[in-house]
Amino acid sequence: MLTQKISKTFDIGDGREVTIETGRLARQADGSVTVRMGNSILLATVVATEEPKPGQDFFPLSVDYMEKFASAGRIPGSFFKREGRLNDYEVLTSRLIDRALRPLFPEDYFCEVQVIITLISSDAEILPDAMACLAASAALAVSTIPIKEIISEVRISRINGQYKINPTRSEMAQSDMDFMVAATMDNIMMVEGEAKECSEEELVEALGIAHEAIKVQIRAQAELRDMAGVGPKRDYPKPVQKEELRARVEAIARKQMEDASRARQSKADRKDTYKKIQEQVMEALRQDAGLGEGESLPDDVKKLAKTYLADLQYYVVREMILNDKVRLDGRGLEDVRPLDMEVDVLPTPHGAALFTRGETQSLTTVTLGTPLDELLVESAANSEYSKFILHYNFPPFSTGEVKFLRGPGRREVGHGNLALRSLKQMMPAGDFAYTVRVVSDILESNGSSSMATVCAGSLALMDAGVPFRKHVGGVAMGLITDGQRYAVLTDILGDEDHLGDMDFKVTGTRDGICGIQMDIKVDGLTLEIMSNALQQAKRGRMHILDAMHNCIAEARTDVKPHAPRMVKIVIDREYIGAVIGPQGKIIQEIQRETGTTINIEEKNNQGEVGIFGVNKEGVDKALAWIKGIVSVPEVGTEYEATVKTIQPYGAFVEFLPGKQGLLHISEVSWKRLETLEGVLNEGDVVKVKLTGTDPKTGKFKLSRKVLLPKPEGYVERPAREEGGGDRRDRGDRGGDRGGFRRDDRPRREGGFRPQGGGQQSEGGNEA
Hints:
By secondary structure, this protein is of the alpha+beta class.
């Protein structure tokens, strides 16, 4: 029998309600809740082991967010018709939750914790990722797993100038700011999102509004926990500590560690120095223990000594930065490492850039593809196609390590997504026909390779001739604080990221912020510190953008000669069938004759035609062909016409693709012609003018002679009077007409009868 459910409902601020419920589902988990808004329901569970694994020296937290297709009444489209590995959207949502939860656990807590959040009912208008962290935190709150405090997370967007918490999917289409914010009751813990060049002040304002909404959710979780009668947090085994050993390690290594921290060494040299210090510490401890040659310290002692040495490095480096405002490589707090960048570095890719900042380096390429190369992005609620793709690769040699090459992990997906969200703000609008893929290969890494990807991506896009509006640059910021003092670091090193309290990445143009990602490892980040960090990040970004502008100031006016060509035109929907032709014959002929690929889509009651080819001539030919099909010939317009066939009475010419007319022999020249032999040949290109259409048949009347100068002394033949008249005074009928008899005069217009009689020829098409 199901136990009695316990629920708490609260208003998110605009009349919409969210309900958190526990005690009914997944009761064997340590903590389990459902979170409902509209028809969207998330189930969150959390389970933790009672003891850490033997030798465990880090916190093994795993967070997985997944969407069941059944939640939206859909069957997965895979071969197996079941959900597979997490897609990128699920991975990114999992990362958002993980980064917010991780700082909640005690530093000495090493028991394995698994958090699983599942979308079990989907609402087409409700974005579930905005409620996923709330669900995970609530599951922890109603459990006895030891967390220091409750958190929550909201999405804040600006829509038509107004900030809104957790907007609907349709409202998001009008948003110019989109940020996910996680916080405790007192401090902001995580921020990630994008904006269309918002200011630093606008971002701080949005964070303040988001924090107030989060406080409502935290209070609701606390009330639910009290209603459920959750007992005290469980105790857990603490790691063994030996304070005497810690003191001895510090005594041996402090002076050497301080010297190494001020030596301004490269990453590799600093690593070697720390390794030598560790070896010296171990040798001194061996001597203290009276061990002979070949004897080694007990494993538990060696492990603790390494831990205490790492702690010593942590405190020494942080004190140096806080006291002396000096960093590991000798830079000041706001200094950016030396920059080096170059475009057009590879001959074959459609665009390429090499960006180096200190010991971080990205080689980024751009590939231009057709609409057929668009990426399908699928979730339970909807499926859509993306024309802008960015992939980030982090091979082991970039950090001088040996590891197995595997598929992209969560880190690669997250870093690539931050770069994509930043760069897409400056991508051309929907009339840009190409599908664009950017690939960043990190060749060296010592701090913020994701920001190197943003900078290199911006350079490579401009090198490829993509009409990229402005450069987007990025810089990673760090924070060192002891609760009283703090130092914000511009362009952090890998070691500063590891030893610091914040990893804060900001991307943008000269005019505003395009993307942000922030993780906090400690409590205490106030909006004041956040504001100062944003202003310092802006100064660093401007320095980098100046260097990027000097490398390439604006996008190339055209794609490279070896790049594929693509144009897009919009046609009336009624002409889509005419371009395709019966059973696709016409579009297949165009593609075959021009060597192009043509894609036609109906959008907004219009036809969008994309023409893709490897050379400009073929694309231009296909474009002219299609324009000819969809264009309406206008009387009085001049055209370049191609002679298709020659007949005794004139020539049939194609003056627009698929549109032919008769150039009558009398309209070829002002001079009377007995034959077109030697005057026109099949395949000749002649300029003609559309003089009219036959009122009965609608066929086109064309003339060449009206575009030629009249011969000197030429006299127009008077028009024949209608209705007959007195025929007796017309004189000799053969006199002025050259003596033609009825059986040998030239055939009159429209009066040609083919030999064999009977069926009328196409001669009725004459002008």
